[in-house]
Amino acid sequence: MLNTQQIGKCGELLVQYKLLLFGIESARLTTDSGIDLVAYSPQTKQPVTIQVKTNLQPKKGGGKGKLSLDWWVPEDSPAELIALTELTDEKIWMFYVKELTEVAQQHSNGRLHIYMYIDPTVKTRKKNQVFAYEFEAFLLKNRLHELF
Fold it and tell me: In a designed cystine with 51, which of 45, 79, 106, 116 is the match (CB 3.0 to 4.6 A)?
């Protein structure tokens, strides 16, 4: 079983791996400054800072059979981009901090909470529940050329 630090490192490595597949170099930062990776954009010729938040897998949440993902991100993240990752399916959603602020379902104690249900057929009681398919546009593979 992986511990929290190992899960976080796996998320960072997943982002680096996927970026490298598209010819984008990146490096891990060893300091705990809120920036996990610095990627170099061949298009803009500029570095891009990334904070990575990782889930190992979807977890039960909100009732029977409801699997969800959720992440907490500091509102004052120094990174330009936030990568939300899920290791089981190797998914990466990439947001500018401003975008994440707009789509986060909760703002609490200086942190943003974003969550999504995995199964679109699940019925929920609340009208503001969000499903993973609603964030398709933010998947790294769909934003790569826009971001880098």
Answer: 79
